[in-house]
Description:
Blueprint lengths: L2 E4 L5 E5 L2 H4 L10 H8 L16 H14 L4 E5 L2 H4 E3 L4 E2 L1 H16 L3 E5 L7 H7 L5 H18 L5 E6 L3 H8 L11 H24 L5 E7 L3 E3 L4 H24 L4 H9 L8 H9 L4 E5 L4 E4 L18 E2 L7 E2 L4 E2 L3 H13 L5 E5 L4 E2 L14 H19 L4 E6 L14 E2 L3 E3 L6 E3 L1 H12 L1 E4 L7
Parallel strand pairs: 2-3, 2-17, 3-6, 6-7, 7-8, 8-10, 9-11, 10-15, 15-17
Antiparallel strand pairs: 1-21, 4-5, 11-12, 13-14, 16-18, 19-20
Helix pairs in contact: 3-5, 7-9, 8-9, 9-10, 9-12, 13-14
This protein binds 5-hydroxymethyl-3,4-dihydroxypiperidine.
Amino acid sequence: MEKFVEFPENFLWGAASSGPQTEGNYGKAHENVMDRWFHTKPEDFFDQVGPDIASDFYHTYPEDFALMKKIGFNSFRTSIQWSRLIKDFETGEVDPDGAKFYQSIIDEAKKNNITLILNLHHFDLPAELLDEYGGWESKHVVDLFVKFAKACFELYGNQIEYWTTFNEPMVIPEAGYLYGFHYPNYKGKGKEAMQVIYNINLASAKVISLYRSMNLKGKIGIILNLTPAYPRSNSQEDLDASEFTENLFNRSFLEPAIKGEFPKKLVEVLDKDGVLWESSQAELDLIKKSTVDYLGVNYYHPKRVKAQDHPEQFKEPWMPDQYFEEYEMPNCRMNKYRGWEIYPKAIYDIAMDIKNNYGNIPWYISENGMGVEGEQRFAQVDGFIEDDYRIDFYKEHLAWLQKAIKEGSNCFGYHAWTAFDCWSWNNAYKNRYGFIAVDLKTQQRKIKKSGYWYLDLTKNNGFVYDLEQKVE
Ligand code: IFM
């Protein structure tokens, strides 16, 4: 039987994006690490498309906000690029043009009655700080990040209700240090990756502490990509592997952000193996007391985990993979364009975990979405893209989310990834994610079928669906 899947009043509806993936590099005095990667190795990028123009948001933001309004958004997330706002990283001196641009974004959002969530770091470390200090391996960079945050709060602190310190911080050690799929493309740097995890947690806590000391009226949180680790079987070996994976990939940020402490079992293993991060008691005390007001969860896919068959291969240099191995579960649903499993029920599992184990802290889905390659295949003669697969994807995830809300999980919003097609790092524009199509040659925008569906969803604050007919 079909039912109306209804959401709470004042629910945040909208989508997320980021500065480096949308703006284009106009007027930016510094490169971030993604700019650097493209400028030195363009062949690593799909069709050799880089971030220099991206979706031209630097110029198109008035039109983009109007379109977002048109498809029912009451909120939108983007990020302030450190490499645009700051002229001198050591002193925190602001670049006036950068400051003006972000003020225009804030004004435009306000004009359209769209609540802006502003994030401070979306994989976009200034490249000079990698060259000079080793990037997030350095605690000096942590302190420079606090100076950048201070400039943001001084400029815009009274105008913004929702701040976030980092987006998907785990991707930085994972992609940059362990497996090499983001710049600086290191592989096998397990020990360094553990220090990066710690330093980013410290940076987040220091920024939260600064924010509180400034007595601003908004809230501050962090955005984590949570990938629940489901074990292959109930054997002790598989259960241990999934527990380790959970602790490393999810809880090494979740626990400090919400409880102010690192997962004890993870710390014990890292200590035993001689790869525990360098920390001081004063830093740990600061992390303990500087926890978030709210949490953003980016959910795309789960991890399927089993015991590692060849731990000896990951001992020298030390890699966490000696404790687990990921595998593709037979017969699972896959988004083959991205290589990610589609498993909507995980959104419910995450929601209940937050409710039961993290004090039911206020949280929202800060990203969820489906990227598809060659989306032009689904265009009608007038260019209208009929992306029904995206609508189905959203409906199913939203239905699981709503079930969790009905069962008491304290979720206050849902942001899709993304509003208008944007640049996705080295995948560039291969997979399109937006409600609004972007023609890269003309930069023209056109709302897709999913955009009109989103408008209906937001108008009705729900949709008709029968989750029980879906068997996971
Ligand atoms: O494009 C990314 C975004 O920067 C972080 N979350 C996942 C998205 C899709 O791959």
